[in-house]
Design a protein that fits this description.
It is built from 13 helices and 8 strands. By secondary structure, the protein is of the alpha/beta class. The strands form 3 sheets. It has a 4-stranded parallel beta sheet, with helices on one face. The structure holds S-adenosylmethionine.
Length: about 375
């Protein structure tokens, strides 16, 4: 790795780090993924440290903020997450549907709205029920979601079906997650149609940028659903042959309670419904997604896992790669650019993990 210890932090990057502007524009609002970072930060880091055609890596990509900002900035991107839910969302957010696809979905929504009478018995998906994925979801909402999911097969393309699943997921989150009162089935249906319109606007914005730039050759975006520890060039080198020259990432936070994989129902119960809606099995507890519980043993596991992950990430990078992770100190931004150079991690606040990375990279 090159020695990046004298790297200058441009003011634009510091301003982007401190920015409190909400995630908006493009496809960022497709799902309110917990602990998303600011698109402005990701964009500025990408534009500061790479040039068009370079490769950006996010090994803990969550809902794919880095990937979208790489895409619209003309950089290739590789992202991965241990969660299939995260990977599903990131993939949908970075798959650009054509206007013909959007027309098909729009027509489909109008047709199914007429076919959603709640008086009919719903198609109860037994496996999901048996496994408890629908537990505690209010009946009218559960039935409405089931109906819409059952209609998915009438959409011709897989990409169209995935976009619609994501819109159901987002509407379900709006209706169920951390809400004090639940909307009616009719309100759910209206919100679902509005969500799709919002999706179309975001996708059109991305499409316009891609068509107006990059000589009609959109950057390549790879979304994987594996732990950072298992990242391996064989997974992407048929599509992207260069090594990543920048890592923009925010790994799970130690000792912080974040529910990445569940919705919270009335502050008391946790629901696995998001996995049912995106048609992925889960089966893991919260500590799987946070790299360890908040017990002392859990924290040890966390630091061991994150160190091993960064050792693996380090092996994947180009010689002159730069690594600016999001600051972990609960909203208090100190210095936000860390580079892995000859002298290890530079310019960062010293935390256990960065010391871990330092010794991992520079034994
Ligand atoms: C803070 S979130 C990332 C949010 C992301 N920056 C965004 O804007 O949406 C951390 C992510 O790390 C993922 N994760 C936890 N352990 C992992 C591992 N071993 N390998 C890869 N991803 C992991 C979690 O599932 C979670 O999605």
């Amino acid at each position: 790795m090159a020695d990046n210890s004298n790297i200058e932090l441009p003011e634009t990057l510091l301003n982007a780090v401190l920015s409190k502007s909400p995630s908006q524009g493009f496809t960022h609002t497709f799902y309110k993924y917990p602990a998303r970072f600011s698109p402005e930060f990701a964009r500025t880091a990408i534009q500061t440290f790479t040039k068009p055609g370079d490769v950006v890596l996010d090994p803990f990509m969550g809902s794919g903020t880095t990937l979208i900002e790489a895409l619209v900035s003309g950089r290739h991107a590789i992202g991965s997450d241990i969660s299939r839910l995260a990977s599903f969302i990131a993939r949908v957010k970075t798959t650009i549907l054509t206007s013909a696809d959007r027309d098909v979905i729009e027509k489909w929504v109008q047709e199914i709205q007429l076919r959603l009478p709640l008086t009919q018995s719903s198609m109860h998906p037994n496996q999901w029920v048996k496994e408890g994925y629908q537990k505690d979801i209010p009946r009218p909402l559960r039935k409405t979601i089931e109906y819409i999911l059952c209609e998915l097969d009438t959409l011709p393309r897989q990409e169209q079906r995935k976009l619609v699943r994501c819109a159901i997921l987002r509407t379900g989150q709006w209706a169920i997650d951390c809400t004090s009162t639940f909307p009616s089935a009719a309100e759910f249906r209206i919100k679902f149609a509005e969500t799709l319109q919002e999706y179309f606007r975001g996708l059109s914005e991305v499409q316009e940028i891609i068509e107006a730039n990059f000589n009609g050759q959109p950057p390549k975006i790879i979304c994987l659903a594996i732990p950072a520890l298992e990242l391996n060039p064989a997974l992407w080198e048929t599509q992207i042959c260069q090594k990543p020259s920048l890592v923009v990432t925010s790994p799970p936070y130690p000792s912080v309670h974040v529910l990445y994989h569940r919705w919270q129902i009335k502050g008391r119960k946790e629901s696995a419904a998001p996995f049912w809606i995106v048609d992925e099995l889960d089966g893991h507890g919260a500590s799987y997604y946070t790299m360890g519980s908040r017990t002392p043993t859990g924290l040890n596991n966390y630091f061991k896992s994150i160190q091993d992950s960064f050792i693996q990430i380090h092996k994947l990078l180009a010689e002159d790669a730069v690594v600016p992770p999001w600051d972990w100190t609960a909203g208090k931004v100190k210095t936000s650019v860390y580079t892995i150079g000859k002298k290890g991690v530079q310019n960062g606040t010293t935390t256990e993990i960065y010391s871990g990375v330092q010794s991992a990279c520079c034994p």
